[in-house]
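Hey,
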Amino acid sequence: MATIATVGVLALQGAFHEHIKLLETAVSSEKDSEISWTFLEVRTPIELLQCDALIIPGGESTTMSLVAARSGLLEPLRDFVKVYRRPTWGTCAGLILLSESANRTKQGGQDLIGGLDVRVSRNFFGRQTESFEAELDLPFLALRNIGDDELNKPYRGIFIRAPVVEKVLPVSAREQVGEAAKEDMVVAPSRSPGDALAEQMVARPVEVMATLPGRTTKITQKLSQTSGNDEAEDIVAVRQGNVFGTSFHPELTCDARIHAWWLQEVRKYIRSKRTLELRS
């Protein structure tokens, strides 16, 4: 009998419907006798409790955090990601919310969920009029070993007022105190992992999953009028355990490859969780 798994998409604001459409496309393209997938728009703590995994979509991160706080979802989201350490993927605004530290915040800052030991720079690439698309090399997609040449083609990333991972921080289950001491910085509150599997996930280092060559240096040079290394790369996708974040918007494409890969990662988590439960 197939295991029923529920993947939620936070539906407070942003491109949540587009994520669900691509999740459905990813599932329809592959036969899965092990898991029966259900996709759910999440707006309440009760809906979040039903989820085995969660996507936080692109949108406006300050608005999302404000609505989450007012609807009583912010603390349950922190528990979901940092205490229970369930698989979570954030795109653009979602990456900001999942970061342990963020700069260039609006006056008064914003609330973060945390889960990724990184510092994110909000709206790094500029205003919406400066949005762009770029071909990305994503080697982790080819690891699915399906034998499909489509998996090896470049991924077309869409960047809209996109953040960038400015720094990978030391692994810490506590608040990033050094970041909190910096000016114009907001940090996520600490949470203790709730079980052995969560502890394993929290202890893992941040992996850089994708970079974008050159744009950091060009923008820095434009602002400072100094020369630099043209080969510098911006970090635009990271993973720490089962928490994943992308600067770009896969949900705004017709390409379901990242969604299919991520569902495989969720499947691995469900297997690991089941194994630990059988041993206990």
